[in-house]
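Here we describe the complex-level prediction in full. Unlike the single-chain runs in Section 2.1, the two entities below were treated as one system.
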Amino acid sequence: MTDNVVEILLVEDNPNDVELTLHTLKRHHLAKRIHVVGDGAEALAFLFCTGAYAHRHLSHGPKVILLDLKLPRVDGLEVLQRLKGDPRTRMLPVVVLTSSREERDVVESYRLGVNSYITKPVDFEQFTEAVRTLGLYWVILNQPPVLPG
Amino acid sequence: MKIAIRLSLAGLSSVGIVAVIGTMLLFATQQVRRELTKNETAGNIFHAVTAVRYLTLEYVLRHEERVQTQWQLKHESLSTLLAGATEFTGSQDQAIMDKLRYTHEKVGSLFLRLVINHQERQIDKGKDAVLEELDSRLTGQITNKTQVMLSDALSLSRQSRVGVLEAQHRVSVAVMAFGGIVVCIIVSTLFLTLRSVTRPLAKLREGTAVVGAGNLGFQLGVTTHDEIGELARAFDQMTEKLKTTTVSRDELEQRVIERTAQLEAANKELEAFSYSISHDLRAPLRAIHGFSRIVLEAHAPHLADEAQRYLHLVCANAQHMGQLIDDLLTFSRLSRQPLKRQRVVCADLVRQVLEELEGEHAGRRVDIAVGALPLCQADPALLKQVLVNLCANALKFTRQREVAVIEIGCHEAGGESVYFVKDNGIGFDMQYVGKLFGVFQRLHRTDEYDGTGVGLAIVQRIIHRHGGRVWAEAAVNQGATFSFTLGGDLAHD
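The structure predicted for the assembly as a whole is:
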């Protein structure tokens, strides 16, 4: 896994969810170039190529960001706001993948410009299906924009 | 002094003065009448004296017995007249009257001597020249005396006319003076009263405007003791009371604001709580279910059948708990969500619900009859949830029937529409009906009929939020009927 050219950035603090997500993506051969960060601050450092990720180049942005909302340090909604508020990262597709089914989280995410909102089901079959579908769509089918940079 | 007292005093004094004027007029009239009587008597005296004078001259010319008799009769009637004239009470009048009586006596004795003289001339013709001389002297004296009497009578008459004029003058002066006083009293009372009314009234009007504009600290401060003063003080008291009640209303509002803030804080805490449940409780469940599934899928060959069965049970329970959490969240969200009441075509809603539930009874014989359903005022999303829960229950509890018969309809009762969902399922014992709508209350064993025990609690909460009622009638193995109303437009939200 190289962090230089990454297809999926998974922002998730729960190691169980990380493992289940990776398991699913691997099983469907979608996890070739995936990078995992455990909190919002690290996600921002990765995406804006600062701190530990200063060597990265902005134009090597991921094809899709899978973003949990409840995160340590900087929460998911703030990460979303920063990404969509910056012209360099505004066009990156962001999919919120969260346990929250709260209406206000859904509304706020869309207001900030999220591309998709997926609730993580408790049922593993449903969860697998959701992750497989969104991986297939955003990594294989979707045509990503050419990023400036 | 009070205005009413002031006005009645002015009225009373005016009436008193008018009475005085009336009395004076009465006295004056009586005086005028007296003077007129005097004047008449004076006239009579004048005429009688004139007659006596003429009769004297006639007697002197003719010396007839008849004239002498007439003279004496006239003289006597004049005596009676003078004696009876008691109305002349003034000292001047009395002096004149005394003089008249005296002269009258004199005239009488002079005439007597004239008569004797005439008789002597008849007897003694030789003394005729002397007697004739005496005759003419006596006649001259009588003429002079009667002339004096005439002028006295005239002066009496003049006196009485003067008396009339004086009486008239006195009355007119008195009427003018007292009338002037009455007018003065009325005018000054009116002026003072108007002044003591109009000024405070203007102040009162100004005060009403000020207080009406919301300045409750305003006081009129009118100190007079009349009715207007009382009104002004009542106004000030009213403003003062208004001020205290307004202050307490402000306090109440403040308290309401504080309570609302506390409630909002509590509500926020509850929301945070359910948010945590939604997020944090589901994550471990997903891990339990996920890893169990992975073990079952990837490592099944290495596991004993018993171990596999247990893992399936772990998965089933995790799923069930996930469902419980979801139902509880739906239930708690119902209280926070605002009610969006609008016109709902119930028949369309029922059709949608039945279409969505078709998958649940695939392969079963189900006979569903939908009766006439009127339009209603309700929150369509919430009403749909009610219908979904009731219809799903009906389908669930008729599972053992060869032909499930479900009827959805509406009838009028007590002026309101009663909607119902009736089935021929296993029903329940009516002695447990009180538990039916409680959260997590179940009347059937989980291994017979799945479910979380929240569905009917959700139904009840939605119906209560609409201001309606929900109830059930059933018997064991004889089906169940769930009925509900939707309340009026004034239902609490």
